[in-house]
Structure formats: C-alpha cells, structure tokens
Amino acid sequence: MRRVVAGLAVLAACEKAEPPPQPKPPPPPVPVARDIMIVLDLSKSMEEQDLVRDRLDAAKIGLHDFMKASVHDRIGIVIFGQQAKVLVPLTANPPSLEETIAKIEIGDVPQLGTALGDALALAVDQVKGSAHKAIVVLGDGENNWVTKYDPQQAGALAKQAAIPVYTVLVGSDDTSRYGAMVADPTELTAIAATTGGTFARARSRDELLRDVGLIRAALDHLP
C-alpha cells in the first residue's frame, strides 16, 4: 500500500512539473546591405498619360515605395534622355532621396532622345566595385541615341561585372485607347535576360507598384 501511495505521489509531482523550455525560433535573416543604382528615363515620351498622372509620375511613386523599403542599402540615381548623368551618387540614407525624386522633371536632361545604353553603362561604373550590387531601370522605350554604349554593350558590361539588372517597362501597349507612344519592351527584356535580372511590364500605376515591390523582395533574397 505504501508503494502505491508513493507511486501516486511521484506521478502527481510529474504532472505539476513545468514542461521543458522550448528553443526560441531563429531570428529572421538580416537583409544584405546592397549598392543599388536606379536608372530613370526622362525622355519626352515619359510625359505620355497612359498611366496616372503620366509615366514619369507613376515611376516616381514606385521609387518612393522602393526607397521606404531600402533603409539598409546604399542607393544612387542615374537619369537619362538624350544624355545620361549621375543625379545622386550612392548614399547610405535612401529616405533622403525621396525629396530629390519628387523634384525630378522632364527637362532635367535633354529630353529628345533615349540614351539607354549610355545610362546603363554609367550605372555599372558606379557599382562595379561593390560586393553586393544591382541596377533597377525604369523606362518606356527602345534606345535611339548612342554617345558611347548601346544597350547590348552596356548589358555586356553589367554581366561582366556580375550585376543583375532589373527592368520595368513603363507604359500601356494599348495605343488605340490612349493615343500614346507605344512602350517598346525589346531592349529592356534583352538587358534583364543578359544580366540575370528580371523584366516586368507596367501597364498601369498599380502594376508598376507591384513590379517594384517584387524587385525589392528579390533583392532581399539575393546572397
């Protein structure tokens, strides 16, 4: 009888005992700090209003969201029309770029031309020495002006430097509805394929915001 009582006491003590502590889940991975150049088209056709309020305004809104999600990166901006120039060198404070982006206008560079290749080559030069790097291009058409590099040559430079280039074509392909100059995907598609990036087509502002968000997520998962 005493053995039964003792056994019951041990069992009751075990039932009251605290369960063993569970291991804490691992913390979420910290995104790799990356050097990113934004390449933004300021050619005349970016004034087309097939996106609200126009193609450039939609692109700027997308970049605003991109900057808000990129506080761990260094970001710079290249703008281009007939000419390309570095508007902002790489900076470790992307939120400070939002005011600069808000002030960008058609005419900040000569607008009658699209020097996509020269702009991409200029962006490559800004980040080619970085350990973790990428380029994001937003534009609406084929290259029609070359000072030094055409898009194929610039894409080869990016590939040689191991820089993925993510491209977004801004503009509708329904010219019958909007009467706008058609946005041509040829060059941007080829650049993304050559460099290991992605190509997306934004036919509306909502699509553009989605595409920029997907690029941001893809960058955060790169090694």
CATH architecture: 3-Layer(aba) Sandwich
Going by helix content, strand content and strand pairing, the class is alpha/beta
Number of strands: 6
CATH topology: Rossmann fold
Low-confidence stretches: none
Task: Explain what this protein looks like in three dimensions.
The chain has 223 residues and is of the alpha/beta class. It has one domain (35-220): 3-Layer(aba) Sandwich (Rossmann fold), CATH 3.40.50.410. Helices cover 39% and strands 17% of the residues. The chain has eight helices and six strands. A six-stranded mixed sheet has the order 3-2-1-4-5-6, with helices on both faces. Helix 5 (151-160) links the parallel strand 4 (133-139) and strand 5 (165-170). Helix 2 packs antiparallel against helix 3 and helix 4 (116-127) runs parallel beside helix 5. The radius of gyration is 25 Å and the shape is globular.
Question: What's the short version?
Answer:
The chain is of the alpha/beta class.
What is this structure's SSE topology?
Elements: H1 2-16, E1 35-41, H2 55-68, E2 74-80, E3 84-91, H3 97-103, H4 116-127, E4 133-139, H5 151-160, E5 165-170, H6 175-178, H7 186-195, E6 199-202, H8 205-220
Parallel strand pairs: 1-2, 1-4, 4-5, 5-6
Antiparallel strand pairs: 2-3
Helix pairs in contact: 2-3, 2-8, 4-5, 5-7
Key attributes of the depicted protein:
single chain; alpha/beta; Rossmann fold; globular; about 220 residues; six-stranded mixed β-sheet; about 40% helix
